[in-house]
Amino acid sequence: MLKLNRAITIGIPCEIMPHEGRVPILPSSIHQLQLNVRSSGCVLNVVVQKGLGSSLGMTDEDWVRGGARVEEKESVYAMSDVILKIKQPFSEEVPFYHEGQVSACFHHMAANRDVVTALIKKQVRIVPFEYHRPGLHVMSAEAGKCIPVILYRICGNKWIKEHIFFGGARGTVGQYAISACYGRGVPLSHIHACDIATGAFLSPKTRMSYDTFSSKNGRKLYAELRKCRIFILAAASSSDAVRFLKPRHLDNFADGAVIVQISIDEGGNIDEQAFQRVTYWSDPSYEVIRKDKKFTVCNVPNIPGCLAPYNASLALEKANFLYYANIIVSFPDIDSELLYWP
Questions:
Q1: Distant-in-sequence, close-in-space partners of 122: CB < 8 Å, separation ≥ 6
Q2: Residue 341 CA, distance from chain mean position
Q3: pTM assigned to the model
Q4: For residue 270, what is the DSSP state?
Q5: Intra-chain end-to-end CA distance of the chain, in Å
Q6: How far is the CA of 210 from the CAs of 161, 207, 226, 231, 333, in angstroms?
Q7: Structure confidence at residue 260 as a pLDDT band (50, 70, 90)
Q8: How far apart are CA 80 and CA 98, in angstroms?
Q9: Which of 82, 121, 133, 307 is spaced 20 to 30 A from 141 at the CA atom?
Q10: 329 Cβ partners below 8 Å, 6+ apart?
Q11: Which one, of 313, 303, 253, 267, lies nearest residue 283 by Cα?
Q12: Cα 160–chain centre separation
């Protein structure tokens, strides 16, 4: 007979970022997660905050039927060994965490360093989803597929006729963004794909073939920048790609250019502070005036309202399900020294 020697409680609080409707796990999957960790000798208790998933049409009764306990926010944090979220903790959430707890979510380590440091000082252990490739992949795919939605919101229909610069074309976001824009009618001749790689590229996910060039090829880069009025920047896959657009490159942007940064959580791709502001789906863009040129800027990860919350939650749950189980059965022996920073 299996000996159940540990009881672990995971808590799922409501997100406080505006329009963030995703949940890390659906009520219908709680029982299966409990069965998975039970095979390792763990009893799993799940406690969720009242109102969790309301944007998905979920009620507190749905969570109770799924096997969770519903509590107020303070109790969720106080009772839990592991706090499971989607978006990073904000400064106003730090006081709710306690010593020895695990914080598991998309922490966005580079952009959220101050809050992560505050949690570490409280001896909270950090499990960043952005370093778990399956979960990161599905959310990157969702972000890429949403690019036409974002461009319609900012530009109306006219964006389809523009030349579009995709920075990070070989990454998941770039592949899906290119495919989504091509599917809406953007010709391949208007797709300018830049990465740290060179040569023609066939995407294994979208089966699209397009030319890409290296960000280190300065002459080619300048020529392509001058052709484009829309810039989709998602090159956060390596230190060579992050912030590959310098102030001198911006001088080649057309007046009225639209800049969409998907890798803003990793510091963005433009090496100027004016392009680092947070944007939300309710107010998705802002203007930057630079040397008499006006740019419209949108920083995607902070506008989760553009994602279909149920589909995104389901995709993330499927990708992360075994990862969640591993976090639970590893508690309290998670190697915190390996989880703080990449």
A1: 94, 97, 98, 99
A2: 17
A3: 0.81
A4: B
A5: 40
A6: 18, 10, 19, 17, 46
A7: very high
A8: 9
A9: 82
A10: 8, 37, 40, 42
A11: 303
A12: 25
